[in-house]
Please model this.
Amino acid sequence: MSYRLAIALALCALLSGCGPNGNPFASFENRCAKLPAARFDVVATPLSFERDDTRPIAELTVKSGSALATHRTMGLTTAVFGQSTDIELRVVGDRHGSRACGTPSVRVELSMQPVVVFIAREVAEVPCQRDATLTHEMKHVEVFREVLQEAVTELEHDFPEAIGAELGRAVDAEQLQQRLILSVRDYLAQFMKGWQRTLDVRQAEVDSPEEYARVAGACAH
Model:
């Protein structure tokens, strides 16, 4: 996870249009009322994947965390579920430095990149086994894509209320800034943990005994 913070701080005397006719001596409340509304944007990095048919079964088995004696990994799909956040805070302070108000603008980008589909080198050399294994791995790719979109939809709905779309107030701009950063960081940490658990469950469902039997028997003839 990564955060990029762009803080835009401005006292009224430096902020164009703070009061009627740009009067820097307009009341603090009037200047607060002229701040832009809070904005929350959530986007997804388009999911794409790479193929790697160069690794042997033994290496993929170790990479998957399985024991070679009990399970041979012929295919494996990996991805990194992450987020990147840009935070901007628009602030107005009074001339005495005793209070401040502000509104946030937050952009969160969720991603599953990079996605790599591994087909074991030994399997890639046998067309039927390669195709059966690849069909299975593409089911994992589709789960990554579905979970990514579902997470974006949930975050779009819940994020503004969780962080607060109303005008923020504090004794100074620094307090507003720290409050916003901590709020965004803590919420997204729990959000990502929850969706990682969901992702793990969904992927485990793809690797059902029935699915393993289908792949194993696909080339029995």
User: Anything to note?
Assistant: Residues 2-217 form one domain. The first helix runs from residue 28 to 33.
